[in-house]
């Protein structure tokens, strides 16, 4: 029996804060590798291509898959330029932003 193909992304956007010129802080999204994000204790992630919600999968053993993220919603994967379902589609669809983006 073949193992099911899974999405695996190793980069994402993480929510950060920076000082606003007028004072206070403002949120912004920064592209990082998953390893960097975990090392920096980041907690909010989204897909760097479509802005959709992602879930984090940590490596559980030495011979297991590397720590990575996958789209939470199949609809995001179907229309994200990096999504597994988008890449396998043969209907000529065009990539688009997530219908439920993470802000």
Explain what the structure shows.
The structure is a single chain. With 103 residues, the protein is an alpha+beta fold. The protein is 17% helix and 27% strand. Strands 2-1-3 form a three-stranded antiparallel sheet. Strand 1 (11-19) and strand 2 form a beta hairpin.
Question: What is the topology?
Answer:
Blueprint: E1 11-19, E2 25-33, H1 34-39, E3 45-46, E4 54-57, E5 68-71, H2 74-79, H3 84-88
Quote the beta fraction. 25-35%
How many structural domains are formed by the residues?
Answer: 1
DSSP strand tally: 5
Largest sheet geometry: 3 strands, antiparallel
Number of helices: 3
Order of helices and strands: EEHEEEHH
N/C terminus separation: 40 Å
Class per helix and strand makeup: alpha+beta
Nearest-integer average pLDDT:
90
- Subunit organisation of the chains: single chain
The helicity comes to: 10-25%
Poorly predicted regions are: none
Instruction: Describe the strand arrangement of the main beta sheet, using strand numbers.
Output: 2-1-3
Shape: flat
Gyration radius, in Å? 16 Å
């Amino acid at each position: 029996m073949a193992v099911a193909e899974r999405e695996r992304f190793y980069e994402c956007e993480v929510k950060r804060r920076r000082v606003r010129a007028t004072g206070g802080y403002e949120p912004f999204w920064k592209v990082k590798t998953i390893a960097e994000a975990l090392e920096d204790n980041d907690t909010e992630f989204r897909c760097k291509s479509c802005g959709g919600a992602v879930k984090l999968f940590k490596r559980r053993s030495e011979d297991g898959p590397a720590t990575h993220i996958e789209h939470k919603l199949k609809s995001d994967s179907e229309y994200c330029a990096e999504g597994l379902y988008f890449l396998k589609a043969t209907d000529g669809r065009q990539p688009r932003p997530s219908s439920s983006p993470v802000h």
